[in-house]
Write a structure and sequence with these properties.
The complex is a heterodimer. Chain A starts with a strand and ends in a 21-residue tail after the last strand. The longest helix of chain A has 18 residues. By secondary structure, chain A is α/β, with parallel strands linked by helices. Chain B is mainly alpha-helical. The two termini of chain B are 19 Å apart. Chain B is 53% helix and 11% strand. A three-stranded parallel β-sheet of chain B has the order 2-1-3, with helices on both faces. The chains are: A alpha/beta, B mainly alpha.
Chain lengths: 197, 150
């Protein structure tokens, strides 16, 4: 049985002391917490991603890259990567980069994030497109990571497996996050971690 | 990976069964993984863990439900209920107590949902960093070793 430390980055005033942290401190605290988690025996860390609300973490691959440089065994994960909202090519490149830098320690957890409907408004998308967007990007990311030729959304050009994806022998492990709202639930999965070499 | 979000974990037994059945159908050459996220706090003993965490967890609960009401036009039922610490920590997605209590609850949830990786959300509700870091160390020294081989 494995244990990961997870944080979604809620910024809440402590009801006991009345103290309130800051966005900047919450960001700087996360790698410190990750280093502690590794020394305490945790298998990995999972960082949330939200946009435009007070769950403040919005750029997990940036923070996970910082953690990669300060740790040696800790798995570097998400909870969750907003696969329906973000650009699939961008996701594939960002996490492949961290995977290479960390010698294959990345675990991407894909989610639709439709619990937070406002994300779709912020990205100029409709919640009704959520399942279709999720499926399309899951297939795209999988192909980019494993080096299969593929094309992007209708109207865009062919998408190649540009470096760093081409440096991976197999893909970073990707898992789907299921929730009541995310049904029907699809077990998107790709092979276990490459060593990134 | 299964979410927590104040709901009843037993809801996910059918999701897990569906996932494992699909996994069999796909015929992968490696073992399936089930991850589950929990709201977690551990202290030296049952009472001090609860005293320390309850106000922070209540603050997080109130904050999240208020946030959801603003940004989600159809808020799920589990996010409209009043804060019920007893239910959340015995039947819900919260795990709190002494190291042995936490081990016991995790063991039961593991069995129920066939969990292979537990994800512990600990830094919530404005918990000060020194208290948080002590609890992470305690979890690592007294909880993980009891379950690592399970």
């Amino acid at each position: 049985m494995k244990f990961n430390l997870m944080s979604l980055g809620d910024l809440v005033t402590d009801p006991v002391t009345g103290e309130r942290s800051t966005n900047a401190r919450r960001y700087k605290m996360f790698p410190e917490m990750a280093v502690l988690a590794e020394s305490a025996g945790f298998n990995g860390i999972n960082m949330g991603e939200h946009h435009g609300i007070e769950y403040i973490y919005s750029a997990p691959p940036v923070v996970l890259a910082a953690i990669a440089e300060r740790t040696t065994t800790l798995r570097l994960g998400t909870a969750v990567t907003l696969l329906a909202n973000l650009d699939g090519l961008r996701i594939a490149e960002d996490y492949a980069t961290v995977d290479v830098l960390s010698d294959g320690r990345v675990d991407v957890v894909h989610g639709r994030g439709n619990f937070f409907a406002s994300t779709y408004t912020l990205f100029g998308q409709s919640l009704d497109e959520s399942a279709a967007r999720f499926k399309e990007n899951a297939e795209l990311v999988d192909k980019l990571w494993t080096g299969e030729p593929c094309t992007g959304p209708a109207g865009s050009g062919p998408r190649s497996t540009a470096s760093p994806c081409s440096r991976l022998r197999s893909s970073p492990p990707a898992t789907a996050c299921g929730s009541a709202a995310a049904a029907p639930w699809s077990p998107w999965n790709s092979p276990p971690a490459s060593d990134g070499s | 990976m299964l979410p927590s979000a104040f709901g009843d974990p037993s809801f996910f037994t059918k999701v897990v069964d569906h996932y494992l059945a699909k996994w069999e159908e796909c015929g992968h050459g490696w073992e399936p993984e089930i991850g589950a996220g929990w709201h977690v706090w551990v202290g030296p003993d049952s009472k001090s863990a609860r005293d320390q965490w309850k106000p922070r967890y209540a603050a997080y609960h109130a904050w999240m439900n208020e946030l959801l009401a603003q940004i989600n036009p159809s808020v799920p039922k589990q996010n409209q209920r009043p804060f019920n610490f007893d239910w959340l920590t015995t039947k819900g997605p919260a795990i709190v107590g002494s190291p042995d209590e936490v081990v016991d609850r995790i063991s039961r949830l593991s069995e129920q949902l066939k969990v292979t990786t537990h994800l512990a959300y600990m830094d919530m509700g404005g918990m000060p960093e020194p208290e948080l870091f002590d609890a992470i160390e305690l979890f690592g020294s007294k909880v993980i070793p009891q379950l690592a081989d399970a």
